[in-house]
Amino acid sequence: MGHAVVAEQLGRRFGSVVAVDGVDLTVARGEIYGFLGPNGAGKSTMVRMLTTLLLPTSGRATVAGQDVVRDPVQVRLRIGAALQDAALDPKQTGLELLRLQGRLYGLSSSDIKRRVDEVTPLMDIGAAINRQIRTYSGGMKRRLDLAASLMHNPEVIFLDEPTTGLDPISRTRVWDEVRRINQDLGATIFLTTQYLEEADILSDRVGIINRGVLAAEGTPAELKRSIGSDVIIARLGGDSEAAKGAVGALPSVQHVSVYENELSASVTNGAGSISGVALALNRAGVDVLELTLRTPTLDDVFLRVTGAHLQQDKQPEQADDQQDGASEPAVEEPVK
Fold it and tell me: Which of 20, 75, 78, 79 is nearest to 46 (CA)?
């Protein structure tokens, strides 16, 4: 099958600041690879290097068989990219943008017409395709940017948080289209996302980057199994460190972590362990506001690897027919 993306000790420094620290990573052809990490972890820096927008300061990388430093033009001809900071001309119509994208990649007039017909269903904006982009909502702009990235049938597609700010219905439509692109066209997809559900549903494999280092990697199922068969969550009203020590001393507990006022304990048998956890917290004099048992999620993996929950956007964008565009997410800063 071969590899669509290969990174070998890939690194990037900004002066004394290390943004990406010697990452080894491979993505198979035809795979959807989910790339997660907290703000400032190096996700966007990694994507910019792989898409030839930023030179690495160490290591090497190939995309679609081409070296990102030695053959950047060949890389660009073979990839599509819908990044967070999309540059769309507000005075163009959606249709004009798609046609221009086709011409820039050397497509014939007939191929441009065919590809426009194929990618416009993804946008789901009807007659608005003939309106100027300045009238589009933020969600419409993101879907247009995704459609434009597909005009030349790329081998590898980089999607940097493609559904951020979209309402749940629009987000589901994009998920369906990502699956179709991957299955019907055989395109490899490198997906960064702030939605753990999105990574879980779409990704064949997931990588988690933390402080510039690839800290965990595997299929969603493998990563969740690494946590244990069950997770006990305690919402605390007392001393978190005392709670961590009391629960961590139990023989049935494989791992325990505390984030803010929430304790998370990984166990092999949740039903048989939850009463012991409750007793241990009671003996430690910790006030327990809520105690729940559930199976592991990618958020549990993320919490263990990074020490924090993946931040979700609190205010999804309003309906896609609104006229005012939402502002783009802030570009992450490199970590020290």
Answer: 20
Q: Any bridge partners for residue 218, and if so which?
A: 206
Q: Could you give the CA distance from residue 299 to residue 50 in angstroms, rounded to a whole number?
A: 26
Non-local (6+) Cβ contacts of 296 within 8 A are 224, 225, 227, 228, 229, 230, 231, 266
Q: Model pTM?
A: 0.80
- Taking Cα atoms as reference points, which of 186, 227, 232, 144 lies closest to residue 28? 186
Q: How confident is the model at residue 2 (pLDDT cuts 50, 70, 90)?
A: confident
- Distance between CA 59 and CA 61 in Å, rounded? 7
Residues 6+ apart with CB under 8 A from 322: 137
Instruction: Determine the pLDDT at residue 331.
Output: 36
Give backbone dihedrals phi and psi of 173, rounded to 5 degrees, phi first.
Answer: -65, -40
Buried-state track 132-149, b at ≥16 Cβ within 10 A, e below 16: ebeebbbbbbbbbbbbbb
Write out pLDDT tens, residues 140-157. 888 888 889 889 989 999
